[in-house]
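Researcher: Let's do a round of design. I'm pasting the structure tokens now; please hold your answer until I've finished.
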């Protein structure tokens, strides 16, 4: 096995940079072949992952947060390498969905166990995402949270982002199409989810499974801003679905159209995209996962076991 570690040194308020000596020690103690590449600017993660397709590596490891992971998977698509994750960002939401340890040492050791599963990816127009995409209020929240997350944890920066965004946001009228069925809605947000968590542990899609070949789509319809402010804390335990204004759909293809301006939050990064077309890509990428998740996939009997 040969590992390429792609490290975003500023992820997690500098936490990712501190992983480098830990990774080196564990790799060398286990006589593993590896290389570490450090990103310097946006886009480097995607570039390094793309170059790894012809570099002789068996595994490409994203070391950072979900934004780093977003870049890495966009570079990996079409290659044969496995994806590894060392969660070193502020949120690390996708690692939660895969039962990957949040400790740097444990996550690096987990790579050596080599228990892998095929999981789904999402596609937003021509770009790929691994965890979620959202439109509406959430994109504005992410934009506000990204401005302050270097000073606060992911959870607190998200909550502050909610408060700031609510003061500016107006509901959006959209046409939502899920597997060719149309819905006309006035929404606060629509989240198209592959994984279950976002925003630093918010359980936005409690029933989402990253190997079932479908999105879970969370629609929050127009509601008074004060009520929405009380709704957000309930998302951490997945209790928001009890609200009448919240609806969960499932589907393989999703289109969102509006005559109003829309920004898209893709794995925590803000992209300007219109039209907005989402497609699930089933069993698209092989990922080194946590033991509990590996057992879940095996017991679900959805596919053959993948153990190296």
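Researcher: That's everything. Go ahead.
Model: Designed sequence:
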């Amino acid at each position: 096995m040969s590992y390429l570690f792609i490290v975003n040194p500023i992820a997690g308020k500098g936490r990712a940079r501190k992983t480098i000596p830990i990774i080196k020690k564990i790799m060398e103690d286990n006589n593993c072949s590896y290389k570490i590449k450090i990103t310097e600017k946006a886009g480097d993660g995607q570039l390094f992952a793309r170059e790894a397709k012809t570099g002789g590596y068996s595994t490409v490891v994203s070391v950072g947060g979900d934004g780093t992971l977003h870049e890495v998977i966009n570079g990996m698509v079409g290659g044969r390498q496995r994806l590894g994750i060392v969660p070193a960002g502020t949120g690390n939401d996708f690692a939660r969905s895969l039962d990957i340890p949040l400790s740097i040492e444990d996550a690096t050791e987990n790579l050596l166990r080599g228990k892998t599963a095929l999981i789904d990816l999402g596609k937003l127009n021509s770009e790929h995402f691994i965890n979620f995409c959202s439109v509406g209020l959430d994109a504005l929240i992410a934009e506000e949270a990204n401005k302050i997350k270097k000073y606060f944890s992911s959870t607190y920066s998200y909550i502050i982002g909610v408060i700031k965004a609510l003061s500016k946001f107006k509901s959006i009228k959209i046409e939502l199409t899920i597997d060719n069925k149309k819905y006309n809605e006035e929404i606060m947000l629509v989240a198209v989810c592959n994984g279950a968590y976002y925003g630093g542990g918010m359980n936005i899609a409690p029933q989402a499974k990253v190997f079932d070949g479908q999105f879970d789509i969370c629609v929050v319809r127009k509601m008074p801003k004060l009520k929405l402010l009380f709704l957000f804390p309930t998302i951490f335990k997945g209790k928001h679905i009890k609200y009448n204004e919240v609806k969960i759909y499932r589907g393989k293809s999703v289109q969102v159209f509006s005559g109003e301006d829309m920004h898209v939050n893709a794995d925590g990064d803000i992209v300007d995209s219109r039209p907005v077309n989402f497609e699930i890509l089933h069993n698209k990428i092989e990922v080194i996962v946590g033991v509990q998740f590996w057992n879940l996939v095996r017991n679900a009997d959805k596919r053959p076991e993948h153990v190296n």
